[in-house]
């Protein structure tokens, strides 16, 4: 692995995970309004999701649409550079944003830290999403020791 990347050189990151309940695709600026609406409508729920209790995200007071766009651009740049991989979680029927998946380097016990969340009105997908991502990591990604806080 290179210093700038936490995936092996030449590794091509998967760009989607499709299930009957949701579709994952790389998060980018084109998702800004729907992403912002999804998490700002569910701050309390997300903060109660395993792995977020001690997190600074999502900010209790929210953030502006412009600040969210800046975050989405950063996540897209990380994906392009192979330094982190963030996926939006979409409803397969209407392609509305219903959650997010973050895969970033981890300095502790593990080679990647995995965070997932879904909107409060889609809370029944919390565990299925986390389990689908765990299976996807085991089959399609190079890491062998994912750290899934609270899971």
Blueprint of the fold:
Layout: E1 17-18, E2 23-26, H1 32-40, H2 43-47, H3 65-81, E3 85-90, E4 97-104, E5 112-118, H4 126-140, E6 146-147
Parallel strand pairs: 5-6
Antiparallel strand pairs: 1-2, 2-3, 3-4, 4-5
Write up what this structure looks like:
With 151 residues, the protein is of the alpha+beta class. The protein has a single domain, classed as Gcn5-related N-acetyltransferase (GNAT) (Aminopeptidase). Helix content is 30%, strand content 19%. The protein contains four helices and six strands, in the order ββαααβββαβ. Strands 1-2-3-4-5-6 form a six-stranded mixed β-sheet, sandwiched between helices. Helix 1 (32-40) crosses helix 3 (65-81). The longest helix has 17 residues, at 65-81. The mean pLDDT is 93. This is GNAT family N-acetyltransferase. It is an enzyme of class 2 (transferase). Keywords: Acyltransferase, Transferase.
